[in-house]
Design brief:
The chain has 197 residues and is of the alpha/beta class. The chain is built from 7 helices and 8 strands; from the N terminus they run ααααββαβαβββββα.
Length: 197
């Protein structure tokens, strides 16, 4: 993580001298990416605050993963990182509880690492207090990259899949269904426009 700070500071130093600099992040730079860090650092220095910063959007890992497994995000959803490097586990657990209570589809970033193996189990236990064990779940690793894997399962069993730092876990809400091995979260069209269905 300190390398990220050094990298962003160096980019700002070069940009402050009038050069054009790019910082490349995977996914979208504004979603768990470098855009926030660059802007935080720019705000700490009069020299850096004069640098014009442009954030170019990308495709988030959750959007890429969702497109592979169907349409799980077509209603309200929450994205929560299970990494406790900068956010205490107590805060993460509260966010999981609130999202589960609110019946959001929940997407988990950084679900498991070599050192942090239990958070995904704890997350499942928290969510199971508010969802059926048969709720559809997708685990997508390396979406649209070499080595892409997809596992469709349910809340009760998904932790048996291969899960790592390049995985995104998408947990359906109470209305999500599994159809032809694709997860769909209805938005409500069938009840609102029943005559058209």
């Amino acid at each position: 993580m300190t390398e990220e700070v050094d990298r962003c500071k160096k980019a700002l130093e070069i940009a402050a001298k009038g050069e054009t600099v790019s910082i490349v992040s995977s996914g979208d730079a504004g979603v768990y990416g470098m855009a926030g860090l660059v802007m935080e650092l720019a705000a700490t220095s009069p020299e850096f605050s004069k640098v014009a910063i442009e954030v170019v959007p990308g495709i988030t890992a959750v959007s890429a993963a969702a497109s592979i497994v169907g349409a799980p995000l077509t209603h309200d959803f929450a994205v929560i990182s299970l990494s406790d490097l900068m956010t205490p586990w107590e805060v993460i657990a509260k966010r999981l509880r609130c999202a589960a209570e609110g019946d959001f589809v929940i997407a988990l970033y950084n679900p498991k690492s070599k050192k942090r193996k239990e958070h995904i189990i704890k997350a499942r236990e928290i969510i199971e207090q508010h969802r059926s064990g048969t709720t559809p779940v997708a685990v997508v690793t390396s979406a649209y990259r070499d080595g892409q894997t997809v596992a469709i399962s349910n809340l009760r069993d998904f932790t048996g899949a291969e899960i790592g730092m390049l995985s995104v876990v998408i947990i359906g809400n109470s209305q999500s269904i599994l159809k032809d091995n694709k997860i769909v979260t209805p938005r409500g069209y069938s009840s609102k426009y029943a005559d058209s269905f």
